[in-house]
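Q: Structure tokens for this one, please.
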Amino acid sequence: MSNYFCNFVCRLNDLYKHTSITDMTNRYIILLAAAMIMPPAPLCLAQASSSKVHSSTVNPTIPQKVSICGQSVSLDPLDYAERYDRELTSLIYTHGNTLLMIKRANRYFPQMAPVLRANGMPDDLLYLACVESTLNPRAMSAAKAAGMWQFLASTAKEYGLEVNDEVDERYNIEKSTAAACRYFKKALARYGGSWTSVMAAYNGGMARITKQLDAQLADDAIELYLADETQRYPFRIMATKAIMENPAAYGFKLTADELYRPRAVDIVEVKGPVDDWTTWAKKRGVSYRDLREENPWIRGPKLTNKTGKTYKVRVPMKEGLSRSTARKAVYNPQWITK
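A: Here is the predicted structure, written as tokens:
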């Protein structure tokens, strides 16, 4: 480094001999900045050659078959194996969202899984929600699909959800999960129990999948030539399941402290209007922000509720809002490393 400094001083002296005071001052500043920001090339090379950096990109192992919602899918066909490999590789190496998805699952799966089970639906459908929204409860797509299950407003209303300026039940985790179950039941009946066809329909629409099954003389949607996103969709859900069942096997290592904790709440039934949610929240010892974060289905500052409908409002308990007092719970022990 001393040789580098000497060279730097020599360059300044040379400038002094051939440059006006103003130009010289400007060039001193530029050279000094360069010296501070950029180390000399020989030093960089020496550091690079002596550093012990070991990194590798490992391709995930592709099994002979996978199971989703109890349906076995062979990965012997090259096309199926490559489609599964594409999704698994993508989820592993674009790992920011995948890591967030695992952490969020610890908070939201306990709310969603009981609704699926109560409706006779398999737990594997949780992974469809992971693909739809990465379990972001406030997710909104460019096409205006909203919530964990990414319902369009028209579809949400068709399956029994309220959507207006004051209430949007696409953001109500339990109610939107129940609505998704109604969709799954209808699609499952239409496709003779094929879950891969149900999943393709969830992405591409039942009308389109039904039409293409007839046009292409196919028995299952994964056999179809479709838009790339829809062709990928069932395989992305299968790949998500693989990672979520054993994250450590794919390089995701977490402790119990790093998982997002389920929030402790009181359930308060609201059967009439609410003039001001901020005042309502303050009376119950929470901020408006915390109320809205826990109930993203509340879409405005008030609730008119002319029909006298009952809404179940989740009021966060104070101990659940602090890292030091929030209850630690691990939904799936496979998500943590010892």
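A few notes: The beta strands are 65-68, 71-74, 265-270, 311-316. Confidence is low (pLDDT under 50) at residues 15-22, 33-54.
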